[in-house]
Amino acid sequence: MHFVCVELPVCTLSSFWSQKGAVDDATLHCVAHGGGSRCQEEGCTKAARAGGTPHCIAHGGCRRCQQEGCSKPAESGGTQHCRAHGGGRCCQQEGCTKPALGDTGHCAAHGGGRRCQQEGCTKSDAGWTGFCVGHGGGRRCQQEGCAKPAARGGTQHCKAHGGGKRCREEDCFELAVRGSKCCKRCSQ
Questions:
Q1: Model pLDDT for residues 72-102, shown as the tens digit of each residue
Q2: How many domains does the chain have?
Q3: Which of 56, 73, 99 is the last residue of a domain?
Q4: Are 56 and 46 in contact (CB under 8 A)?
Q5: Domain span at residue 27?
Q6: Statement: the pTM of the whole predicted model exceeds 0.85
């Protein structure tokens, strides 16, 4: 049976989750919008992992990578390792060792995964938006009037509006240099 999340037209994942059987007919929400069973860890609102486990991936609701010191989830398909340690399928491009995305058989660099819907663009879809960052996809800065992409690291703003990693020195609000805890000025 094909269900549709009641969050439409906002929910762009509805048909994806419905095809996977992940729309809960009791709540009429897809898993991404609160449908289905929830993780039993106190304070967690994520979906419980399929297969009868009462927890999400972050709280142990799946098989774990068998590489010593790694706690990431193992890839599906019977492998004992996460993608970083060789689990899952590899890109079919000759000489490439990156993981294949979805059912495409290729990594993002070689055309795998979801692509930008802008005509003529071959870049990867950013954040299930249907477009690459250059064409408006992914998380955007929350500052009113700003259309720039949000900086990496879960921030809600672009670098110009306070997003990104900042210098750790007292009274310094400059951006930290990548791989460092300080800005260029303070690290000299």
A1: 878 776 678 887 887 878 888 998 878 788 7
A2: 2
A3: 56
A4: yes
A5: 1-56
A6: no
